[in-house]
Amino acid sequence: MAQAHDRPSRNTPPRLPGWVKVFGMLFLILVVAFVILHLTGNSLGGLHGARTPIELGVY
Amino acid sequence: MAMPHSVRKFALAAHVTVSVGWFGAVAVFLALALTGLISSDAQLVRAVYLGMELTARLVIVPLSVASLLSGLVSSLGTSWGVFRYYWVLIKLVINALSTLILLVHMQPITHLAHIAAKMQISNAEGRMQFQMVVTSSAALVALLVAIGLSVYKPQGMTTYGWRKQRQLVQR
Fold this sequence. Notes:
- The complex is a heterodimer of chains A (59) and B (171).
- Chain A is mainly α and 59 residues long.
- In chain A, 37% of the residues lie in helices and 0% in strands.
- Chain A has one helix spanning 18-39.
- The longest helix of chain A has 22 residues, at 18-39.
- Helix content of chain B is 82%, strand content 0%.
- The two termini of chain B are 17 Å apart.
- In chain B, helix 1 packs antiparallel against helix 2 and helix 1 runs antiparallel to helix 4.
- With 171 residues, chain B is mainly alpha-helical.
- Chain B is elongated and about 70 Å long.
- The A-B interface holds A 10, 13-14, 16-17, 19-20, 23, 44-47, 49-54, 59 and B 86, 90, 104-105, 107-108, 111, 114-115, 118-119, 122, 124-125, 127-128, 130-131, 134-135, 154-157, 159, 162-163, 166.
């Protein structure tokens, strides 16, 4: 009985390995999480948020 | 573009050296970031952020760029290539993205150092201090994944690599 994961013939390119699909999904999840954080104003990047004492002219 | 054996070995040794050095420097950066976040000693906290800026600018950035370049040279000079195998390709993506994100994050690192040079770090910088811990932890994880890929070299040839291999066989 033919299996779902038969070896591809020499005329067809190799299938995408499972571990690459897992990596791809994890990367997508990270990108989506980063975009959501950024859009909701909870970004961890850059100099967003409260102004510092220097910028407020305290010092 | 096959390199002579001795040059290949040198390129590999250089890549391993700068890459592991990068990992170690980020581990130091994380230790400093944690200290800056949790310590109640104001003088220590100021010293920490000054040290973090120096570490990032003089060690981490040069090592990350060196790792990226040496990795490209190593790949191009061997049969692994840059785009033929998934483990090499994903390592390249990790390396390039980590270097890019590091360069972007030099801005808040420098900002904290400038504040630390002038005065005590206040609660207003809390979010940025926490960011230092999170981003350096994420960098360590990314570099660990890259190290794992280098050692285990999981199987998987890309379509491009498969076509290249067929071309070589058909010659």
